[in-house]
Design a protein that fits this description.
Chain B: InterPro entries: Peptide/Ni-bd, SBP_5, SBP_5_dom. The structure holds 2 protein chains of 2 kinds. Chain A is mainly α. Helices cover 77% and strands 0% of the residues of chain A. In chain B, 32% of the residues lie in helices and 19% in strands. In chain B, helix 14 links the parallel strand 14 (381-387) and strand 15 (410-416). At the A-B interface, helix 2, helix 3, helix 5, helix 7 and helix 12 of A face helix 1, helix 8 and helix 15 of B.
Chain lengths: 315, 541
């Protein structure tokens, strides 16, 4: 187990290095305008000022030299500077906590609500609760996130306060509100995945509940609770854990829309803006961080397999 | 039918509930205005450190406007310059200017605003080693070439020869050539003063600038979250802020800001999102401010790179007269733009209503006549380039359709991902079609709508992407610059405007309107021509 873990961690190094190189290459090779002009917006950047900035940020160096300067900087703990003079590391460490908190709250909502709804539907197959879960999840899946987001923002954020006098949710994220501020955006972010988790749990549990060992367990006279939780659910969890693990990475990087709707200045928005402005250093830093999150989430999922299924052993 | 009836019931219940809550909230808005209090207003993250000399974008300018006061300020209504920190700005030849400062202005750290604080700021901005975005604004001052000799060269001086401190309250500025609009230009943020503390660490200064304005920083800039400012109590009494403090809350998305405004979580949004425009006047009533803004939208023509197509004046006139400006501003922009009828924006002193005359009036028959007379364009094809990221698609396509219908020419709209991409192609002379273009002023002078876009020097350093050159225009501008009487100068700029109208290097299509709204908890909200809030005047209800 320990050796397996170390091997996996060592394997992650070339993946990360390769990711930085590829992403740097991609932002460098992105077609289109000069980043200095992008900063100047719709007025032409003064040629002299632009030339001085190009020199300052080594924008005229060949790609490999730029990458080399970047990566040697990274190994010395210097993640570079944006063209407007901010430290990339500062920007990422500012944005990351919001994204992480949002992702965690969303993840908890999706895992708990999704799995519970799925179990209830699976155990009462064809009954009202099953129909309710199926129809409501279908609805959630078919509505795009930005629609859910704007509708909830308007109804819970504006109408609730103006028309009912209940000032609980805010249309935009307020840090001062603490945990409450994350609830609405996290729910919006979690909604689609939540629906998938519920449906996945339902199918997977229904399948295992038909398995021979479950029938044996019931025949042995085990209480229903133990049959469902220890025999049914445990075996049904493998595809769900796989989905949840992959989704955690998705929640981190894919929160761009939710972050934008609720004005959360997280990693997603930062990356989107930096891609637009061709701020290579920020894109590489941010994406590498997301790659790292993916790698760790994957590792945890793999380790969880062994916990869930005793037949899987890592040496 | 049962479904329909119950839906009515629900709707009825909602109306009752809304009426009930409307009664309960109306009572807290009738108290008299009072001094003090805090409000929150919208802002986008400024691009970089808050230093006037290095700020050329609107978000940074918004905060700087609260933190700094320049030599002159502009009237929110007429846009005429009025003296602010300056007591007098005098000249006899428009070349040497003597600037006297008022007493009573101090920086937020207590330091006096003296002549040196302006000279210090301008010297810094003019030095190419600092790569400040405001650098081109100093190139009219004598000696600027020593501080900005060009790429791969080192500055040979650190002080502008043209700036001389006479005494603590007086300094003189010598320009390379007379420039009658110099005083008007001085309200731009590149000309704000800087305290001694700036020199120690310009970068750190930009995070928490020490200004001389009605508001001072309340803590440092909290990136991507907020910038807090509070009233500066030692500011001269007549301009002192009424509010205790203002928080600029940073938004990436104006739709969210607008929803926050509706819930009164923030009090002023000075740039409303497009989605709000349809309903805002109903919802906000007289708290919705809708006024002309400084921008002008054009259709640019590549005169230098494609004279075969656009070289003939008849062709340019025909294109201009084939565009139905009324239809575009009404149907596509819902009245948030106005048809352009001069190259000079309507809010600027010197604008003449209907100056474009015949060429600015929709006349498809005459257009077609001129077009056929001139023999059309080679291949009977025109391209219209635009950047797809700024909401220009609709109007460019409308123009394309109008040209197609009225001139019988084959028109294709050509999208570029970003504005910069289009500029690159124009500069590399790779693109030979017409293109969308816009200009908004740096300072409210007629001159600022002509020189940066149509002068010879602007081909290199400005926005003359069409490559328009007219010697008569150049000499008229130079004459206008030399004028010592402002009225005389203005007349000459209008003469230069007439030359541009005659030549029609760009086709003005519309001018912009700005739309803002504020919540019922504030009053006295004014927005200036640059779209900035006049926060010192705002009061709580």
């Amino acid at each position: 187990m320990g050796r397996y873990l170390i091997r996996r961690l060592i394997q992650a190094i070339p993946v990360l290095l390769g990711a930085t190189f590829l992403i740097y290459l991609l932002t460098f090779a992105m077609p289109g305008a000069d980043p200095i002009q992008l900063l100047a917006g719709e007025k032409k950047a003064d040629p002299l000022v632009a030339a001085m900035l190009r020199e300052k940020y080594h924008l005229d160096d060949p790609f490999l030299l730029q990458y080399w300067n970047y990566i040697t900087g990274v190994f010395q703990g210097d993640f570079g500077e944006t063209l407007s003079g901010r430290k990339v590391l500062d920007m990422i460490t500012e944005a990351f906590p919001y994204t992480m908190n949002l992702a965690i709250v969303a993840f908890v909502i999706e895992a708990i609500v999704g799995v519970v709804a799925g179990i209830m539907a699976a155990l009462r197959r064809g009954k009202f609760i099953d129909q309710l879960v199926l129809i409501s999840t279908l609805l959630v899946i078919s509505i795009p996130v930005f629609v859910t987001g704007f509708v909830l923002q308007l109804t819970l954020g504006v109408k609730l306060k103006n028309e009912w006098g209940i000032d609980f949710f805010s249309p935009s994220f307020n840090e001062a509100d603490g945990f409450r501020a994350y609830l609405l955006p996290a729910f919006v972010l979690a909604s689609t995945s939540l629906a998938y988790v519920a449906r996945l749990t339902r199918t997977s549990l229904m399948e295992t509940m038909r398995a021979d060992y479950v029938r044996t367990a019931t025949a042995k006279g085990l209480p229903r609770r133990r049959v469902v939780v220890n025999h049914g659910l445990r075996n049904a969890m493998i595809p769900i854990v796989t989905f949840l693990g992959a989704d955690l990475g998705g929640l981190m990087g894919g929160a761009v829309i939710t972050e934008r709707i609720f004005n959360i200045h997280g990693v997603g928005g930062l990356l989107a803006k930096s891609v637009y402005l061709k701020e290579g250093a920020v894109v590489v830093g941010g994406v590498t961080l997301l790659v790292l999150v993916y790698l760790i989430a994957n590792l945890i999922v793999d380790l969880l397999y062994a916990v869930l299924d005793p037949r899987i052993r890592y040496a | 039918m049962r479904g329909a009836t119950s839906a009515k019931w629900v709707a009825g219940a909602v109306v009752v509930a809304m009426a009930a809550t409307a009664c309960s909230t109306s009572k807290d808005s009738d108290s008299a205005g009072k001094s003090g209090g805090n409000i929150t207003v919208v802002l986008g993250e400024p691009q970089h450190g808050l230093v006037g000399q290095n700020t050329a974008e609107s978000e940074g300018a918004e905060v700087l406007h609260a933190l700094f006061t320049g030599l002159v300020d502009y009237d929110n209504k007429t846009n005429e310059p009025k003296l602010a920190v300056a007591e007098a700005i005098d000249t006899t030849d428009s070349k040497t200017w003597t600037i006297k400062l008022k007493d009573g202005y101090t920086f937020h750290n207590g330091e006096k605003v003296d002549a040196q604080s302006f000279v210090r700021a301008w010297n810094w901005g003019a030095n190419q080693d600092n790569a400040a975005e405001g650098l081109p604004f100093f190139d009219k001052i004598e000696g600027s070439e020593e501080l900005a000799p060009g790429k791969d060269k080192k500055p040979t001086a650190t002080e502008l020869k043209g700036l001389k401190v006479v005494d603590e309250k007086t300094f003189t500025v010598t320009l390379k050539a007379p420039f009658s609009q110099f005083k008007t230009m001085l309200g731009y943020n590149a000309f704000y003063p800087l305290p001694k503390a700036f020199e120690a660490d310009p970068k750190k200064f930009g995070e928490a600038p020490i200004g001389n304005g009605a508001f001072q920083m309340d803590g440092a800039w909290d990136h991507n979250k907020q910038i807090k400012v509070k009233r500066y109590d030692k500011y001269p009494a007549e301009g002192r802020a009424k509010l205790e403090g203002v928080t600029f809350k940073i938004y990436d998305n104006l739709d969210t800001a607008y929803n926050d405004l509706r819930a009164d979580n923030i009090q002023i949004v000075d740039k409303l999102p497009v989605s709000a425009l349809a309903t805002v006047s109903q919802e906000f009533g007289d708290r919705y401010i809708y006024k002309p803004e400084s921008g002008v939208g054009y259709l640019g023509l590549p005169l230098a790179t494609n004279p075969e197509a656009f070289g003939k004046i008849e062709i340019r006139k025909a294109i201009s007269m084939a565009i139905d400006r009324d239809a575009i501003t009404k149907t596509i922009f819902n009245g948030t733009r106005k048809p352009a009828d001069d190259f000079i924006n309507p809010i600027i002193p010197g604008y003449r209503k209907g100056a474009l005359g015949e060429v600015g009036t929709y006349n498809p028959t005459k257009a077609k006549e001129l077009w056929t007379q001139a023999g059309g364009v080679p291949g009977n094809k025109i391209e219209l380039g635009y950047n797809a990221d700024g909401g220009h698609k609709e109007w460019i396509e409308a123009v394309a359709n109008q040209l197609k219908a009225n001139l019988g020419v084959d028109v294709t709209a050509k999208p570029y991902a970003k504005f910069g991409d289009m500029l690159d192609d124009l500069q590399a002379k790779k693109y030979k079609g017409a293109f969308r273009m816009a200009w908004s002023m740096d300072y409210p002078a007629a001159e600022n709508y002509l020189r940066p876009i149509f002068s010879k020097v602007a081909i290199e350093t400005g926005s003359n992407y069409g490559g328009y050159v007219n010697e008569e225009f150049e000499t008229t501008m130079a004459e206008a610059d030399k004028a010592t009487d402002p009225a005389e100068g203005l007349k000459l700029y209008q003469k230069a405007d007439d030359i541009v109208i005659k030549d029609l290097p760009y086709i003005p299509v519309f001018t912009y309107m700005s739309s803002s709204a504020y919540s019922k908890s504030v009053k006295n909200v004014e927005i200036d021509a640059q779209g900035r809030m006049d926060l010192a005047k705002v009061e709580l209800n």
